[in-house]
């Protein structure tokens, strides 16, 4: 299989000389906190889709059908993510990274707050689920633009030998937001069930406005990417970034997406579908399950941190391949642990999936995607790969797996088989991508 070469050129890379300077620390904090806030809102919806929306917005349906409908609205948000990546990526590559990041954060915060204020279907009829879907689309568009910009602001300021670690701050922000969202839902889930479903679940959504205000204060103080400011070739300015990505780097998009799908398949399975499965089907305590999920997300942060640091030393490919192989090998054992229906086994399964498998793949993934594309189209290219990975890997997984379990009569073996197949495909795709750790990101379009 021919290998995809990351862009190289003899140009001198523009970067802040150290990650320890006050300015660089501010950039890394902005990348981490901004991403955490965006994914707090996005994962908050996913958690509510597992536990709440089927009972509030999809009433008068059989429980399995209502849950399927709830997961379908979740998938709609993931469908919007690639579009958000394209739209925000276009303006990020044309106008700069900073402005689009501020816009995406405001969009997400407003949409989440309105979700928290939506009346239930029992009060306003079909207006409620329709509005929920529309707001989920806005969330998908916003988060589609967030990650690429947050990751690139850190990576494009960083010295070459620390790019993987710098880019991982956006990746660590995702599970940090998941921890915050899970703990927020866990706290209100201690309310009596009637109160939780009536108003308790709304509190974490409405609280999003305060988090966005904090994020904006930090983000407004960050300077524009030096690599973006260094662009000088006016001839390329008239070209559409998306068309350049699709015509010049189609293999990078396809192979990068297949690799990224592995991490997101784990996320969709273990942090969305499995939560509903162990609470509704296995009868585990809702609050205990959410607390386990929060610990699992914390382990993801640790896994991302370690994997990113080692990727700067060993390369992106060997570190990510370790996670991919681990995922293929552990797919069936993890499904067995879920089916046995014990909380401690669920915890082990989730910790392996989040900390070891997802963390190891996701840690270097920011630098991995960025190194596939030159500066002029990097926001669009990296965002497209990331968001396609999330949509195909996580967006449809809960819905598909719910249907597969029904087809298999409650057995989870078919889920494990699908999971392992996705990881085998990712391993094959990784073979077609050449190591980009030493690529010079100051290289222009070739």
Automatic annotation (TrEMBL):
Lineage top rank: taxon: Bacteria
Database matches in Pfam families: MFS_1
SUPFAM superfamilies, A to Z: MFS general substrate transporter (SSF103473)
Domain Major facilitator superfamily (MFS) profile: 27-434
Topology in membrane: Multi-pass membrane protein
PROSITE patterns with a match to the protein in the record: MFS, SUGAR_TRANSPORT_1
Record keyword Membrane present: yes
TM spans (from-to): 27-53, 65-88, 100-118, 124-144, 165-187, 199-218, 253-276, 288-307, 319-338, 344-373, 385-406, 412-430
Keywords in alphabetical order: Cell membrane, Membrane, Transmembrane, Transmembrane helix, Transport
Compartment(s) where it occurs, according to its Swiss-Prot or TrEMBL record: Cell membrane
Keyword Cell membrane listed: yes
InterPro entries in alphabetical order: MFS, MFS_dom, MFS_trans_sf, Sugar_transporter_CS
Entry protein name: MFS transporter
Lineage of producing organism: Bacteria, Bacillati, Actinomycetota, Actinomycetes, Micrococcales
């Amino acid at each position: 299989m021919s290998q995809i070469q990351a862009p190289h050129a003899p140009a001198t890379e523009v970067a802040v000389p150290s990650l320890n300077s006050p300015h660089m620390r501010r950039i890394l904090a902005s990348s981490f906190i901004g991403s955490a806030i965006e994914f707090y809102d996005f994962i908050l919806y996913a958690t509510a889709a597992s536990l709440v929306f089927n009972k509030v917005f999809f009433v008068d349906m059989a429980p399995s059908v209502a849950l399927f409908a709830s997961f379908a609205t979740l998938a709609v948000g993931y469908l919007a993510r690639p579009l958000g990546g394209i739209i925000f990526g276009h303006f990020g590559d044309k106008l700069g990274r900073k402005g689009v990041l501020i816009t995406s954060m405001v969009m997400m915060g407003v949409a989440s707050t309105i979700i928290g204020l939506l009346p239930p279907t029992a009060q306003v009829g079909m207006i409620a689920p329709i509005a929920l879907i529309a707001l989920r689309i806005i969330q998908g568009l916003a988060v589609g633009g967030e990650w690429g910009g947050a990751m690139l602001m850190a990576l494009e300021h960083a010295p070459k030998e620390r790019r993987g670690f710098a880019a991982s701050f956006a990746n660590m922000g995702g599970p940090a937001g998941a921890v915050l969202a899970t703990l927020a839902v866990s706290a209100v889930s201690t309310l009596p069930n009637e109160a939780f479903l009536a108003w308790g679940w709304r509190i974490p959504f409405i609280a999003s406005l305060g988090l966005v205000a904090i994020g904006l204060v930090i983000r407004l103080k960050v300077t524009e990417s030096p690599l973006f400011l260094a662009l000088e070739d006016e001839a390329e300015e008239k070209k559409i970034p998306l068309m350049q990505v699709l015509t010049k780097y189609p293999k990078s998009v396809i192979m990068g997406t297949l690799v990224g799908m592995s991490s997101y398949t784990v996320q969709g399975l273990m942090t969305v579908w499995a939560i509903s499965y162990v609470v509704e089907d296995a009868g585990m305590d809702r609050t205990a399950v959410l607390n386990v999920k929060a610990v699992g997300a914390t382990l993801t942060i640790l896994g991302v941190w370690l994997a990113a640091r080692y990727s700067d030393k060993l390369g992106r490919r060997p570190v990510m391949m370790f996670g991919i192989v681990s995922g293929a090998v552990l797919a069936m054992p993890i499904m067995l642990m879920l089916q046995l229906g014990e909380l401690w086994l669920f915890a082990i399964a989730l910790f392996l999936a989040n900390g070891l498998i997802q963390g190891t793949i996701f840690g270097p993934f920011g630098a991995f995607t960025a190194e596939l594309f030159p500066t002029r189209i990097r926001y669009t290219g990296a965002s497209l790969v990331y968001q396609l990975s999330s949509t195909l890997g996580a967006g449809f997984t809960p819905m598909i797996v719910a249907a597969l379990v029904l087809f298999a009569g409650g057995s989870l073996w078919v889920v494990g088989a699908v999971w392992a197949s996705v990881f085998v495909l990712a391993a094959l795709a990784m073979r077609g991508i050449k190591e980009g750790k030493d690529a010079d990101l100051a290289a222009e379009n070739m």
